[in-house]
Structure formats: C-alpha cells, structure tokens
C-alpha cells in the first residue's frame, strides 16, 4: 500500500503522457499493482522500483491500446469483407440474442457488489472516487472489486468471443 501511495501520482502523470484517457491510465495503474501483488513471491529483486513501475505501466498501457486496436481492426475487416444476405442477417440476429443471454450469464458470475460497481463505472461513467463515495467504500476497495470482476468476466468472455468468431466466419458462405 505504501508503494502504491508513494508512486501513484508520478505514475498517473507519466501514464497520461502515454495515453490521454485518464480512466484507462487509472485502470492500468491499478492492474499493475494488482498483478505485482499476485506475483509478489515470484518477482525478482528490484533496485530501481520507480523505473520498474514506469516500465511496467508503459507496457500495460501499450498492450491495452494494442488490444483495443486489434479488436477494432478485426471488427472492421469482418464488416468490410462480409456482404450479408437475408439468411445471414437472421443468423446474426439470433447470435445477438444468444450474446445477450451469455452476457447476462457472465454478469451473474460476479458478486452483487462487483455488479453494482461495474454498473457505476461503465454505464454511469463514474470514476473510482465517485463510486467509493457513493457506496461508502475506499477507492482501493473499488479498484480491487473492478479488477476482480473484470478478471472473472475476461476469463468467461474469451469463450464467448471464440464462439462469436466461429458464428461470424460460418455466415460467410451466405
């Protein structure tokens, strides 16, 4: 916690130079510290902790950006390559309904507290401090709950995304 408190502001300033989206920077800083905590027993000895944290954060932000770019590029290339027939549109509509059902199932896998925090964060666009104030929690608790919820959802979302890609590639013959 001391490491987090001591370096947070400089990491935030540094991160905002790499990515202007402050929420992404905050999320990445949070993920860095959560990953460090999870791997604390396997980490090498670090002599320059500030440099280590800056490098870790920079890589995390760039990976987040690259992942977002890949998702966007994949979506655009699929749309550009596919001219949908009536049958394909029906299949896609059915897939959308199935996706909604799967998303509801995915949201049931997280705790009610995490669900409420995710709702505030991504649907009401509140920042961590606003969520903490509204729910009478510490900002650190909010960070931890968001991280755990997203980790759980990502694990299950990979399966859903693979199924969707199979469905989309299956409609190319129409």
Overview of the molecule:
- The protein is mainly alpha-helical and 174 residues long.
- The protein folds into 2 domains: 1-81, Rna Polymerase Sigma Factor, Chain: A, CATH 1.10.1740; 85-174, Orthogonal Bundle (Arc Repressor Mutant, subunit A).
- The chain is 82% helix and 0% strand.
- The protein has helices at residues 2-18, 22-38, 49-81, 86-108, 112-123, 128-135, 139-170.
- Helix 4 (86-108) packs antiparallel against helix 7.
- The chain is globular.
Please outline the helices and strands.
Elements: H1 2-18, H2 22-38, H3 49-81, H4 86-108, H5 112-123, H6 128-135, H7 139-170
Summarize the structure.
This protein has 174 residues and is mainly alpha-helical. The protein has helices at 2-18, 22-38, 49-81, 86-108, 112-123, 128-135, 139-170. The protein has two domains: 1-81, Orthogonal Bundle (Rna Polymerase Sigma Factor, Chain: A), CATH 1.10.1740; 85-174, Arc Repressor Mutant, subunit A (Orthogonal Bundle).
Task: Identify the notable features of this structure and list them briefly.
0% strand; 174 residues; Rna Polymerase Sigma Factor, Chain: A; Arc Repressor Mutant, subunit A; mainly alpha; 2 domains
Shape: globular
User: What's the CATH H-level superfamily name of the largest domain?
Assistant: Winged helix-like DNA-binding domain superfamily/Winged helix DNA-binding domain
Gap between N and C termini: 56 Å
Strand tally: 0
**Can you give the helix content as a percent range?**
over 70%
Query: Approximately how much beta-strand content do the residues carry?
Result: under 5%
Mean pLDDT: 76
């Amino acid at each position: 916690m001391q490491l987090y408190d001591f370096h947070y502001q400089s990491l935030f300033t540094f991160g905002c130079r790499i990515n202007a989206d402050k929420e992404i920077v905050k999320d990445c800083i949070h993920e860095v510290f959560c990953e460090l905590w999870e791997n604390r027993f396997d980490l090498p000895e670090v002599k320059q902790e500030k440099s280590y944290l800056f490098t870790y954060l920079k890589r995390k932000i760039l990976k987040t950006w690259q992942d977002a770019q890949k998702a966007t590029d994949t979506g655009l290339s699929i749309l550009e390559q596919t001219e949908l027939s009536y049958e394909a549109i029906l299949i896609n509509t059915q897939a959308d309904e199935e996706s909604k059902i799967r998303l509801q199932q995915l949201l049931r896998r997280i705790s009610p507290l995490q669900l409420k925090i995710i709702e505030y964060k991504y649907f009401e666009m509140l920042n961590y401090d606003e969520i903490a104030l509204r729910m009478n929690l510490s900002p650190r608790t909010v960070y931890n709950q968001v991280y755990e919820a997203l980790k759980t959802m990502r694990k299950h979302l990979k399966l859903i995304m693979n199924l969707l890609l199979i469905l989309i590639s299956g409609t190319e013959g129409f």
